[in-house]
Structure formats: structure tokens, C-alpha cells
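Known limitations

Files may contain more than one protein. Parsers should not assume a single record per file. Below, a two-record file is shown to illustrate correct handling: read the sequence, read the C-alpha cell line, then continue until end of file.
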Amino acid sequence: MFYASWLRSCSGLHVGGQIDHTSLHCTLPTMRYQAMYVQSRSLVVCCMRPGRFKWYNIRKPAADSRQAEPEYFEKQALALEPAPGYIDKLGAIWLEMVSVGRDVSFKRDDFFIQRDVKRWLPELDVEKPRAEYEYVKALKSAPETVQKIFSVQYGHRKDSTFLWKRMLISLVQQHDLDNESLEARIARHTALIRHWTTLLMQMKSKPGWLRQSIYISINHRRKLLRLLREQNVASFKSVLERLKIAYYTPPLPEDARPMTRKAWVEFIVRKKMELVKEERLRRYHEELKERQQKFLETKDHLFEDYEVEERKLRSELAVIRIEEENELEVVGKALDDTIDQVTESTMLQYYYLPRRIDPENLLPG
């Protein structure tokens, strides 16, 4: 019904109406579809098929615990060999990464992927009194029905949360009254995250306010872990081990991976080309090493040939040197600086000879 009403609103169709064209392209709220329909006198048959842009489920649950690794999808993409359809395969990996990214960000720090969340919360004795009635002496001698009323089993959800907080804090606190140190605050957030995650998995419809609360607690716990790591590395490792949580160092802004499909595929292709180049250089280096070994085995014979040729060239050079060392016979006499001592009039006599005038050829005046 939705598709029929939407199609009529897009194209102005109605049952039994006349159609001037045979296909149209429209965009649904979540995906792009191409509508194809066939006309008849009283009925329009319409079918929807996927168009250019593929729809993905942003709430897709993570199916593999290895997806929690920050470089899992990048390694999976780099393992592909360039071949026909290579870009499409990279696009499919990017689609999987984006689809499960939201679920991974919620679960990877506590190892929730494909594991039972209840295993990571301490077991509670639900028959014990609630925290505010623990030290009431009259309750110990009260009837069993009264004790059940004041027990954790018949209390609110906050009573269980309080006990889980106290039990996790006791694992990492520095002393009995420690409730505000970094270790205690990390344990408190861990109890909240695990309890709320358990509730979220039990709910059929996932409320946004609960997801937002979990997201805020996860980010705040990461900040506290970063501060604890900067201040006390030994305590940081101890907290991770006792609370069974993980800490992933966020990448620097210049090292952050692109998130759009086109940019991510281009990044993977460039990195793959670098790996291919390095692999080819490594193979060429090994080939040169093998050739070097063969050369070292035959170098003695080559050196002998080179020495024979060198001696021959040296003998030829010696003959040429002997011929050049013979004294040259000087022909003529050098005047040295005689020209500098000659006067200008003498120079004119040498280089300027005036023309003689015959008096017989002179015309009468």
C-alpha cells in the first residue's frame, strides 16, 4: 500500500488511468529504486528493483569478534589482489565496515561481540537485603516473607546496579574509602555500561535515550583510561586486566582513515600499490643477491682477465710517454722583450711604408 500510494504521488498514476511513459526513477526515504510498470486498461502492475545506490543497515550487529580490531577491515581489503571487480569488492568491504561500525563501537571495549554480556557482570545473591537495609539487625530476625520484600530480588533495577558498582569498585580501589579515584570511576562506568547493554539486548525496540547514555559512558570511560595511562601505567594495566576491558588508542587527526566510500577505496588502492611496489623491490633485491653469489663464484677468472688487460694498457701508455719525453729542436731565435723596447717611430718604419711620388707625373701648377 505504501509503495502504491507513493508511486501514484510521484507519477500521478491511478488505477485505470492512462500512462504516457513506461519507466520512472524515484527515491525512497532510505534507498534509490527504479520503478517499472506495465499498463493495462484497469490495472497498473508495478515492481521495484534496486537502483544505483545500495541500501545498508546501520544497526547491523557485528558477527565476528575480530571486527573489534581497528585495522580488521583494512587488512581484509589489502589482502585482495587487483583483478576485475576489485573496486566492487572494496566497496562491499566498506559497506560491511560502515554497517557494523556502530555496533562495534558499543561492544568492542568490553568484548561483547558474540559473547554473553551476563558473563562480564558479577553474580549477585538476590536473596540478600538491599544496600540500604544491609545493616538493619531487626531484618535478620524478621519472617522470611519480610526478608524477601527487602531483598534485591524484589527491589528496583537500581539496587542491582548499585551492587555491581560496589563489587567492581572493590576490585580496583586503592583503599576501603576510595570512591573518587580514576580507578573507581572507571569501574563505576564499567558497571553502568554492562548493565545498560544487558537491558538493551533484552529490549525488542532499542530506545535512543539508552543508546545515548551508553555512548556517553563509553566515551567518558575512554577519557578516564587515557588520563590513568598518562599518570600511572602500572595501575592502567591492572585496571584493564581486573575489569576485563580494552583500550584502543585513537589515531591522530593526520592518521585518521577517510570514512566516505570513494575516499576510503582510493586510500586502500594507494596503500595496496605501495605494498605491491615494496614486494616487487624485495623480490628484485633477492634476485640481485642470487646474481651476486654467482658473480662472486666467477670473479677470480674475471679479475685475472682484467689484470692482463690492465698490464697491456700500461705498456702502451709507457711507450707513448717515452715518445713525448724526447726534446724538441728549436728553430729560430726568440726576441724576448725586444718589441717592448722599440720606439714608436721605429715601429712605424717597420709597419708603415709611405708611397713614393714620381715628380715627372706631377701636373704643372
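...continuing to the second record:
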Amino acid sequence: MFVFIAPFTFFGFDDDKKKGCFPRDSYRLRVRASDRGMPVLSADVDVELDVVDRNNKPPVWDLNVYGPTHIKENVTVGTVVTSVKASSGIDNNPTVFYHLMPGSTAQTNKFHTFYLQQRAEQATTWADIKVNHPLDYESIKEYNLTIRVENNGAQQLASEATVYIMLEDVNDEIPLFTEREQETVLEGEPVGSKVTQVNAIDKDGTFPNNQVTYYVVNSDRNEGKDYFEINRETGEIFTKVMFDREKQGAYALEVEARDGAPSARPNSNGQPNSGRWYGKFYLKAAAAA
């Protein structure tokens, strides 16, 4: 809730006040914002208002709201996200000055994730919004920027526009396993017995970038590939043979988790991101009947 807690005051009046004409009046207000909690908490702010001649015109934006502009989260620093422009509102004086206003949250550019550069093109001055820091869809998905433009009149007036930016997820996260790397298998268990389940998490924000599929690695060093199989969807690992502890006491197994789309990482050659799990299975004697 907002309330005025003191009557406004006037300063800068001249004799025209008596005629009901105020070409350069100023007002000072104090506004209080209060919540409805118990106890009531509040904060005050002072506001100063200048009244200008109605013939003085503020700058005029081409649009009051720009966007949403969609960009991929892995665009490089310095990339132009969008360009905006405004006219000065003053005949024969086209000069304008742009400012990208920092907000109070990360989504409103508190940490200067984006920056502004003015660009002159013939008789028009543009404002280019550029990427200042690396972006991350998994942290922040959208931004709401405020741009202020001021003209160069005797009474410098300003107006604001809003720029909406939406990030698009790219496949830049690697599936990471969460399980321990040692397991126990009972000798004599029938073929098809479940021995464990592995799980990998891909932190990408959208499907199929975060879809994980599991594989037993087919390599000569993976001695367990002939003794275990895996459910590609669930990560459950099952036996393919009946084990005998007298023949061999332990087996190593290598499992790979792949996500569901070509990787956006450098030098990925169109392959999905992947992570590996290396497990050791120790045979244990079955309990006596």
C-alpha cells in the first residue's frame, strides 16, 4: 500500500503563480509503502517533480516495448542482442543520449549482464544492446531491461522503453553420475538378476537436451561388457551370466550416459554430450541354505 504522508511543497514559483500559470514549478512529495503484516513494516522515499512547459517535448521511442527477443544462451560476449532508437522530439536538434538502467534484480540487469553502445547512422542515433557476461539458461531464462533516452533541450526531458530478452537452451551440460562405484553380486544368482541401478543427471533445462540414455561401453578394456547388461532408459544393471567366485572374484564395468541432442560444446562434431561411470562388482558367496 502506498500513501502520501506529507502535503507536497512548492518551490521556484514566480509572479506568474498569481495568474494560475506555473512555467517552472517543482513539487516535493514523501511517499510511504507499507505492508499488511504484524507489526506493519514500511519504507519512505522522497520524490521531486518538475513541471515543464507544455511546448517542451520528450523524446519519442519507435516502440515503447521491444521484444521479446530470443537468443541462444551460448552467444558470445559482445553480441548485439537488439537495436532500438528514439527521436529527440525537438525540431532541428536530433541529439539524444541513451542509458541502460540497472535494476534491483539479476533479471533487470543488476549485475550488468548487458551493456549499451550508441551508434550514429546518418542522422539517426541508435542504441545497441550487447552481451556483457556469459549467459546461462539454467540460471536465468529471461531479462527485462529498461532504457532511458534524454534529449538535448533547454529543459532536458527523458522517456523510457522496455526490452524483453528470452534465452534459448542449448545442449551444453554433461550427464553426471551420482552413484558409488563399488557393488556386490551374489554368486549363483540366476541370469537376469538386478544388481544395481545407476543414475546420471543432465542439468540442461529442456528436452531432449536433458534426456539421458545409458549404454554398456563396447571396448576391449571393459571386461564387464560380456557379463552385465543395462536398461537404456532406467539405468538398471542386470547379470548376463551366473557367476562363480572361484573363477573370478571381481569384475569391472564401464557405463556411458548420453544426452538426447547434438552437443553445443566446441569440437563435439555433432555428437551428444556424455559422461562415464566406472564400477567394480565384487562377488559374494551366497548364504548357506
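Parsers that stop after the first record will miss the second one. For reference, the second record is described as follows. Residues 186 and 287 are 9 Å apart (CA to CA).
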